[in-house]
Amino acid sequence: MRKCIRCNCDMVENFDVKVEGGANGLKITEQGIFKDNLGKVNVAVCPECGYLEFYLKDTEKIRD
Questions:
Q1: Per its UniProt entry, which superkingdom is the organism in (predicted)?
Q2: Is the pLDDT confidence value at 46 over 90?
């Protein structure tokens, strides 16, 4: 369970990120052209203050 860094409330997780006007969302890649997708971006939302936190569920591809 993620905790809000602003008010220490339990955050609600597993929301998707979408770009307004498009349905593809965001993706994380290494710098450069034609690099592999590192994972789907997810969002946790604090129900008290509205703070948003972006995260990757699977971090295996970014580990050394």
A1: Bacteria
A2: yes
